[in-house]
Each structure stands twice: as C-alpha cells, then as structure tokens.
Amino acid sequence: MIRILTSLVAVLTVASVNGQTSAGKEPPKLVIGITIDQLRGDYLELFQHTFTEKGFKRLLNEGLVYQNMEFDFPNLTSAAAIATIYTGANPFYNGIFASKKYLSDKSREVSIYDDNNFLGNYTTERLSPKALRVSTITDELKIASGGFSDVYSFAPNQAEAITMAGHAGNCAFWIENTSGKWATTTYYKDFHWTVEQENRSGQYSTRSPELLWKPLLPINNYKAFPYTKTNAPFQHAFYGLDAFKLLKTSPCVNENIRITALKLAAKADMGKRSNPDFLALTFYAGNYLGADDKNYSYELQDTYARLDRDIATLLDEVDKTVGLKNALVFLTSTGYYEAEDQYGEKVNMPDGVFYSNRCVALLNMYLMAVYGQEQWVEYFYENQIYLNRKLIEQKGLDLATVQEKAAEFVLEFTGVQDVATAKQLLNGKANANMLKYANSFNREYSGDIFLEMQPGFRVSDESDNSKTDKRTRETAVVSPVVFFGYNVKPEKINRTIRAEEIAPTVSHILRIRAPNAAKARVLPELY
What CATH number belongs to 353-471? Predict the structure, then answer.
C-alpha cells in the first residue's frame, strides 16, 4: 500500500510540475504571420533543389507541418482566404468574400474595403476595415494588451494588408499601383517613420525602370518542368503605366516587403517589450503577369527560389534580434492557384464559351415577356447575376419567385453546370453541390443568381474589351501550414486541417480570446 501511495504521489507531482510548466510558459514576444498568396505544396517539393537550408527547408524540417489546409467555400481569393485565416470564420460571417465588390446602385466595381469616410495616404483610394464584420487575431491582441501591442501588416495589395491589420492595428501598408510607394488609409493612425523614409528614398518606387529581374540561379537549375517552352534565360524590366502592377507579381515585391517590414520591426523594437507584438506579411508566389508561359515558366521557379532566400533572411534576423524561441512564426497559403489555360487545336479539348452579355440580354427579354417591358437584369459579375431589386419591389413582385424563374432559364445555357438563387442559399434549400456558395454569401453585395460553370468553359463579355476571358478551372491546391519557433517541436501531420482552426490556435498560444466569430477548436498538437 505504501508503495502504491508513493508511486501515486510521484505521478501526481510530475503531472503537477508539467502542468505548471505549461501554464507558466510565457507567450511569444513576437508573432509573425506569413501568408503566401498562391503557395503550392507540390511546388515546395518540386523546387526544393533550388532552396537553401535556412528558408523553406528550415521551416519544413524544424517546424510543425500540416500537410494541407482547406477552405469551405468556392472561388478563393487572397482577401477572402486571409480573412478566414485571421478571423477563424468563413466569408458568410466575416464579410470578406472577395477583394472587390459590385455596387449595383452605382453600377461599378470597388474595393471590398471602400469607405468614403477616410482619405488615402499615398493613394487616392478611400478605404477602411469597416467591411470586416468580426474581430481578427490582431484585434483581439490589441484588446488584450490594452492597445500596447504593436500590430503592423505589409502586403502587395490593400485588401490583404487591411484584412491582416484588422480594425485595431497600428497600420496596414500596401504598394500603390501607380506610384509604387507604400500606401495606407488615414483610418490607421501610425504611419511609421521608417516607411515614410522608404517612400522618400524610393528604392523601389522611383527606381522601377532600373530594376531588372534576371534568374537568380543558372537557368539549367530550373529543371522542375519538362514542359517549359524555351531554354533562354528571361529578363524583365518594369516601366510604363503597368510597371508596378507587374512588379507586384514578381519576386521584387517580396524583397520589398521583407526589407521594409524588418526595418520597421527593428526600429519599433517589436518583440522586445512586455506585451507581444504582431507582424503580418503577405508574400506572392503566383505567376508573373509578364511571362510568356504562365504555367511552366522559369519565372515561377525563380520566384520560389528568391522567396526562399527572403524567408531565410527574415528568420535569421528575427533570431538575432528577438530569438526564435521567443517568436512564433506561422506560414499559410491562400489555398488556390491562378492558372492560364490556352487550349491548342492539337489537344481537342472542349473549348466552349459562355457569353455573359448575351446571357444578361436574353434573360432580360425572358423576364420582360413574363413581367413586362422593363430592365429586370442589372449586371453579371463574378458568375453572379444581379436583378433589379428596386424595380421588383416597386412592381410588388415576390423576389424569390423572380429569382427562381431567372435561375431556371439560365440553367439551360450551354456551359452552365448548376445554379442557385440567393434565397435558396440563405434558406439552405439549394442542392448539395451549390450549398457551398452559402459560406461566401454576402447579404449586401452578393447577386441574385449564382452560376457554376462547366470546367474548361471560358466566360466572355463581348460588350467590354477591358475584361479578359476567364476559363473555368477548380483552383484548389495542396496548401501546407507551418508553425515554427517558440519551442515548437518538429512534426509532420498528414491530416488536412481547416483554415478556421488557425486563428483559435494562434490566439491560444498568445493567451488571448479567439476572434468573436471563431468556432473551431485549437489544433491539438499545439494545445
């Protein structure tokens, strides 16, 4: 009996010590959230021979690696993906279903964060995070620290930067399309002097014509694709009206983000105070818009090789200044990849075209025959049809009935795989295939009819030459998630996790509340 009691006391003592050690562990001094737009897990494997030992390989070998992360809504964009990661909720709750929205009353497309109440800083855009309906990890950190934690975000584009900074961040920075300078909105009050200095020095903004993108490595090192159409090294300069739009799809944008963010972090003493700080970054790993071959290019392989060096430099700098044991780094993907399909005559692939302007015209004629000579259809946008709701209300018609009649008509068009009405999505009465669209539905800005196009079909608008044809393709890719630093033990987890699980997990590590719309549990490996 004495032996049993002694053993039991010993076990309880060890458990108590372990529990106290876990409970007494200080939260990280610095969190660095890295989201890589269009990062593909298969490319990390294919391109690894071009990587150093301190970048991607270091994260994958020394971090907690989840093989894949999935999102529970279709038509992924960087803004919608990042909003889901940072809020722990899908677009139906967080409000960010895309980077842009269509204003039916003004018949124009604007940023999802459009807000005339705030001026731009180094931009003419008027923006605020008002469209973000729920809190983010960064918001909750600001609340918990009483505003003393610093939160800064850097991204190529405004929707990405504002999403990460949330409502309470010090500042969100993105690269302005026409000037190449770091821009923000006057909603945020802390335009850090290091970024102002960067704008004045113009390392990237004024020197864009001088920037020359050539392969980092000998061209024969880029041998991942046997389908590359040329053996000649590439060379790209950035000039003209679209110089900075092109630059933002090149590795130059990642280098700019890395340099500017690290300079601010150092001068702001991020990670060196009693309250944790948060540095949120979005890098780009998609196709270069100026490449001749946008699917199997040397440019894409070079982008990954250079991004590997940027990550290596970032990790080394954090280790020197804060210490990786005091910093939590989490890396995620936006979960999609934008390919550009060109079907040649030799492959004999189905190459149908869905003409959106013809669809709108014919649908309007049909509704005129049913309800009278009026303009019943307003617009076709992102595979959604917008009906004239004001007219429908004025005529005393039932909106759901008009939506159903329109949907039945549109379903007969060649290239349309399936349809659902807004009413069906809200009531959960759409068929199982279309219910996924409910997770990205927005009551204010979504259309009345949702169309799912047949894979391979092109969506074309003959009435607007500014719009490029877009071929339908499922764009989901293998999207790894890595947690690194802060004494995280190396482990590879083969199961697929949900994007909504990231925010509660990071919040748990920071000892703060999860964002207010987050429902998922903390990842058990980090609990």
Answer: 3.30.1360.150
